[in-house]
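quick one before i forget lol
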Amino acid sequence: MNFLKFEHGETIDMLRESVRDFTAKEIAPRAAQIDETNEFPAELWRKLGALGVLGITVEEEYGGTAMGYLAHIIAMEEISRGSASIGLSYGAHSNLCVNQIRRNGSAAQKKKYLPKLVSGEHVGALAMSEPGAGSDVVGMRLRAERRGDRYLLNGNKMWITNGPDADVLVIYGKTSDQGITAFLVEKGMKGFSTAQKLDKLGMRGSNTCELVLRDCELSKDQILGEDGKGVKVLMSGLDYERAVLAGGPLGIMAACLDVVVPYVHDRKQFGQPIGEFQLMQGKLADMYTTFSACRAYVYAVGQALDRNETTRKDAAGAILYAAEKATWMAGEAIQALGGNGYINEFPTGRIWRDAKLYEIGAGQSEIRRVLIGRELFKETS
């Protein structure tokens, strides 16, 4: 079906087309199996690297395409349209890990880590949340004790997307009572291990686990940014994270329409296609206009980021609005299909389970509302 065109230019249009074609061929046909088996399709990563989307914000000298944040959002949308779980793993890799290293890493760190992450040879992750510190990120308890020019990390991280598969991880720890520092940790380092893989309601196949660090010894060269200045890295990264991840709910909403629109033509009741009934047409109208409004907001935030106009309240606002509407729209898709929407032969149940994550990850909806309200109050004080 035809969606509203936003005239982002030939480069963005070509990107969308190439990612959509790749997703239709390589991802969408496997989405149900990935959900059922809860297995991460590692072989896709090199293919995504070859497509040029793993380093979409990264400079060309490190193997990236330097296309910016709007492009990143659109790649996220199109991948998530085929499989929201692959889209989530993609966002965790390309934004939470890769973009953080690009923005905050030293020249040596960028040279060491980015090329293999951008090519898909390595998988990336970010570890911020802990068993007792989710939304309260500065309440984290993982300690990074300084021993001369070395650091010993001790503690646990929880709900880490790509954790079981990651080769490179950005991990935050307390280096003093008040100071937080970001570190680059590699798979196989002594004292670092992954614990249980979590059995999730949705986003299955986007592997999530607990991380365990027991006397994990790092050099000062593994610090990302500055010692004790990790809060700045963390908070600024959250703005970019929320904006880019908002592309995931857009893909989910497009997937809902991909299911519902053909169905209302094929399904007949009382001797006619159910799409001819006015109530069903009203449902379609609400779904389409909501989707279009969400796209406009999310794209506008991406364009602002490309102009270096980082806006905390709108990064939070874009994912708040898109996430809640994606969950609503997945529910509408189930309702449109009736009994078929409730059986696993159709993808609507999986789409709903996947959509709910975006109201929780990257700051729950409640936290986003607090942040937006606080920012608005500050601006008018």
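fyi The first strand starts at residue 124 and ends at 127.
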